[in-house]
């Protein structure tokens, strides 16, 4: 059967000849063109995804160029304005100079300027007795110092010792010499004992040595040494004031007996914690202080 078909097709091949091949080739070319077109379309479509990156880069460059070019246009348009002229040809400013009316800051005056007199310069008050018993105080100053102490200012301790509070000594000194006209100069270091601190002080008035005494004060814990040091200074001040005649009656035995008889009393008190009883001195009309209460 195959042979019969082949023999039947031979005349057809001869009749077609070259034209048939051309037609076949042309058809093959035309059939190939759509393939090329498809390939080209595929390549263009494949290249499109890369276009955003290229376009973004190009846009960035374009935007930068446009942004940089805008100020130039503005400068070109406004080049005739006075401001643009001043920016193009700036005038140099004058160098900074200190105002003439402001001088140098004055230095603090030396310490010698605050001394009562030039004769006091160079005095070591930790050991000097400069001015001791040279000139007596005026009569009005002496009247303030030796004025009798009012009974209302005198206090009494639980053991019966009368005293004048240290702040009232300072008030008398301020009234007699003025604030700043007197002072206490330490004559040694603070001595710390087992339960007491002591220190020696000198009382100075208007640059003169007046008196010297050692003060003392008790303390009960290590954190109370600083407070005891202040109490030590006040105690030394009270003792130095005896040489000026301040509250001298507090050391007069007859005055002490008279004060206790008129203004003080001895009462029984009880400790609120331990319930122990004892006798104590108080001013008439006053109540015992804590931790005691009157029985």
TrEMBL record:
Low complexity: compositionally biased ranges: 34-69
Predominant localisation class: mitochondrion
MF annotations from Gene Ontology: single-stranded DNA binding
One family name in Pfam for this protein: Mgm101p
Annotated GO biological process: interstrand cross-link repair; recombinational repair
Family: Belongs to the MGM101 family.
Domain of life: Eukaryota
Keyword hit for DNA-binding: yes
Subcellular compartments: Mitochondrion matrix, Mitochondrion nucleoid
Region: Disordered, residue numbers: 33-117
Keywords: DNA damage, DNA repair, DNA-binding, Mitochondrion, Mitochondrion nucleoid, Transit peptide
Organism: Cytospora leucostoma
Extent of Polar residues compositional bias: 70-91
CC terms in the record's Gene Ontology section: mitochondrial chromosome
Protein name stated in the entry: Mitochondrial genome maintenance protein MGM101
């Amino acid at each position: 059967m195959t042979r019969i078909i082949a023999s039947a097709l031979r005349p057809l091949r001869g009749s077609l000849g070259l034209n048939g091949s051309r037609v076949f080739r042309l058809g093959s070319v035309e059939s190939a063109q759509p393939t090329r077109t498809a390939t080209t379309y595929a390549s263009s479509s494949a290249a499109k995804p890369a276009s955003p990156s290229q376009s973004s880069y190009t846009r960035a460059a374009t935007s930068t160029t446009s942004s940089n070019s805008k100020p130039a246009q503005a400068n070109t348009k406004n080049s005739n304005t006075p401001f643009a002229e001043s920016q193009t040809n700036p005038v140099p400013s004058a160098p900074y100079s200190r105002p003439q009316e402001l001088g140098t800051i004055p230095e603090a005056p030396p310490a010698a300027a605050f001394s009562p007199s030039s004769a006091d310069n160079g005095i070591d008050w930790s050991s000097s007795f400069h001015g001791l018993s040279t000139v007596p105080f005026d009569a009005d100053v002496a009247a303030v110092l030796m004025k009798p102490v009012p009974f209302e200012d005198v206090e009494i301790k639980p053991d019966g010792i009368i005293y004048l509070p240290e702040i009232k000594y300072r008030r008398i000194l301020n009234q007699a010499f003025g604030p700043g006209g007197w002072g206490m100069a330490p004559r040694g270091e603070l001595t710390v004992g087992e339960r007491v601190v002591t220190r020696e002080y000198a009382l100075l008035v208007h640059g003169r040595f007046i008196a010297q005494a050692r003060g003392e004060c008790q303390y009960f814990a290590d954190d109370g040494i600083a407070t005891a040091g202040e109490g030590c200074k006040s105690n030394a001040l009270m003792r130095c004031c005896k040489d000026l005649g301040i509250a001298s009656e507090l050391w007069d035995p007859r005055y002490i007996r008279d004060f206790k008889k008129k203004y003080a009393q001895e009462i029984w008190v009880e400790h609120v914690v331990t319930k122990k009883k004892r006798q104590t001195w108080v001013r008439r009309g006053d109540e015992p202080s804590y931790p005691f209460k009157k029985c």
